[in-house]
Amino acid sequence: MDRLQSMRVFQQVVDEGGFAAAARKLDMAPAMVTRLVSDLEKHLGVRLLQRTTRRLSLTPAGDSYLSRLRVILSDIDEADAMAHAHTREMSGTVRILALPVVATHMIAPAVAEFQQRYPQVVLDIHVEDIADPNVEDYDLTVLNGLVQVHAGAIVRTILHSEAVFCAAPGYLQRHGEPRTPADPAQHRCLRLRTPGVRLRAMRLIDPTDGDRELDVEVPAVMTANHTDSLLRATVHGAGISSQPVDLIAPMLRDGQLQRVLAPWITNRLSLVAALPSRQFMPARTRAFLDHRVEHARRTVAGMGLEEVEGAELRPGPAAP
């Protein structure tokens, strides 16, 4: 049963004073109008209308239900009208906050295509590496899934990803390709450094063997607290590093980088979008968010990553 349609038909029957008149008004078959109202009564488990050969009247339950129903249907019609107006006017500014690596490799490449679709929308992108982002100050905040957001925010997962070992073809020609989990210890490795945390053994995960884990000591010839610095050094042949697949997918495809030590991964990651509230979200913000999701999935297509089917907005976890 299409419950919304049944509600509208029920209201029309009352307003028109009968099933036949409502059918003419709605351009529907009288039998369909009768069936939809009957289905609604069956769903609710209560009779809404008293039917006689001479007249139609509301039952007490029907009268109470209709009074609430009018408000609900009016709100739906108003929401539809607002959405259509925003779509027609698709213009204005979307203020976006993003981590540096996300802005450079995941947002910037999606801008040209978005502007072709919506040339009147201005993107105001703020790039900042911050552990506690103020989501309320922006229309959209794009983060990795490890960053905590406040409970009042709404969060949508853009995609799930994995961190994998990679190196430039030139490096592998000079130093050979690692074949076993112990081999990176003999290579020139570039590692991400978290401020205040000393380097530890790297945890390797084999997704093809029940997520079997190994802790491997991987000495580093270079450390940095900046993912993009490690990535550029890797592309230029400085050594082997662990990078998110969604970040390096274009470089894997065009041959700048080559994945090594497959099927082992070093982490599971996610890219998320946080919004201050789902209420009154401008159409331009929704359009950019949907475009960002679409672009991210096309970027990693064929990389064997888990799809986020029908990703929904959900409340964010409380910030620590």
Automatic annotation (TrEMBL):
Pfam families: HTH_1, LysR_substrate. It comes from the Bacteria. Residues 1-59 form the HTH lysR-type domain. InterPro entries: LysR-type_TF_proteobact-type, LysR_HTH_N, LysR_subst-bd, WH-like_DNA-bd_sf, WH_DNA-bd_sf. Keywords: DNA-binding, Transcription, Transcription regulation. Transmembrane segments: none annotated. The keyword Nucleotide-binding does not apply. Belongs to the LysR transcriptional regulatory family. This is LysR family transcriptional regulator. It comes from Ramlibacter terrae. The lineage of its organism: Bacteria, Pseudomonadati, Pseudomonadota, Betaproteobacteria, Burkholderiales.
